[in-house]
Write a structure and sequence with these properties.
This protein is α/β, with parallel strands linked by helices. The chain is 40% helix and 23% strand. It is built from twelve helices and twelve strands.
Length: 323
């Protein structure tokens, strides 16, 4: 980050001071590389009531109106992605299926595949629209609730907790990871996927090619992680990182002159190329090359998302956390 970037200070409602270099300013929000939390986040943070309104009713109707339809269009590709993730989880569990809680389960395709593989599956999904699809169409055990200390009390214990594209939306990601820690069986696994933001490709596009920072999207995205900050966060609340890798660096197309940021049809076309690339590797028996390639991206701080698997430590360590 720019050593000359100005600093910003924000005091939360618990009188905790968040200080860090300003990474971006958007509308009424300032993104800081927070020294207190160890990762970047917006200031000020929305209230709990604001977030409940956004994710219970608005997210899939206003922010992502075609999400479920396109998710289903891509089901074959998602099943391949999810199969790889289940295979990794099963490997870390000694070759067996187990019980899994999917936090932010969306329309439910990840859980549906797990059920086919013999897993005991349960989901939590705050979006009414997505939860209804999971229950009514896929016949999954999904509750239309938020995960917190109160709701966790009735959920039981699990071998794995999955949070795909969740932590970036939460006002206190450290607290939700502590809740997840308490829901896992000894030696249980945590699978996290978050956007890899302010990555080197994005900074080149912003600082040298005139792109607005399209990835900064408050109040929907509150936190901005990279491989190092996500690993540090999970370790601070009692987890041991087992794998820290990337997904395809879709920003690469922008550097090739294909500006999909405001062109939805082009974005779908380029996503199709990404799907084809990955399918060709797997079909050719080159899945190990794909794995090593994406691990190399992670080593360079690249990749559109961070995909991390961690194990619950034997002894819980509350750590400094964040908020």
């Amino acid at each position: 980050m720019d050593a000359q970037a100005p600093m910003h200070t924000w005091i939360d409602k618990q009188d905790r001071t968040h200080v860090g270099k300003i990474l971006q300013e958007v509308s009424s929000f300032t993104v800081i590389d927070c020294n207190h939390c160890g990762f970047a986040h917006v200031t000020p943070l929305p209230t709990a009531d604001d977030l409940e309104t956004i994710y219970s009713h608005e997210y899939y109707t206003q922010e992502k109106p075609f999400y479920i339809e396109r998710y289903l269009e891509d089901r074959g590709w998602w099943d391949a992605v999810y199969t790889e993730r289940y295979e990794k989880l099963e490997g870390f569990l000694g070759g067996r299926a187990g019980s899994i809680l999917d936090v932010g389960s969306g329309p439910g395709l990840f859980l549906a595949l797990g059920r086919e593989r013999g897993w005991q599956v349960k989901g939590i999904e705050p979006s009414t629209k997505a939860a209804e699809y999971s229950v009514n169409t896929l016949r999954l055990d999904v509750e239309n609730i938020f995960l917190d200390k109160s709701t966790a009390q009735s959920l039981g214990r699990f071998d794995v907790i999955n949070m795909g594209e969740v932590l970036e939306h939460l006002p206190d990601p450290a607290e939700i990871l502590r809740v997840a820690h308490g829901l896992l069986n000894p030696g249980g696994l945590l699978l996290l996927v978050v956007p890899n933001d302010f990555n080197p490709f994005q900074l080149i596009l912003r600082d040298h090619l005139g792109f607005e920072p399209w990835w900064v999207a408050p109040p929907h995205h509150l936190n901005y992680f990279n491989h190092n900050s996500l690993a540090s966060l999970v370790e601070s609340v009692g987890f041991e990182v087992l794998e820290n890798t990337s997904t395809f660096p879709i920003d690469l197309f922008l550097l090739m002159g294909k500006n999909y940021v405001t062109n939805d049809s082009l974005g779908r076309e380029l996503h199709g190329l990404r799907k084809t690339f990955e399918k060709q590797l797997v079909d050719a028996g080159a899945a190990e090359i794909k794995r090593k390639l994406y691990a190399a991206f992670a080593g360079l701080g690249l990749g559109r998302e961070v995909a991390l698997i961690a194990r619950r430590s034997r002894y819980e360590n509350e750590g400094k956390g964040c908020r």
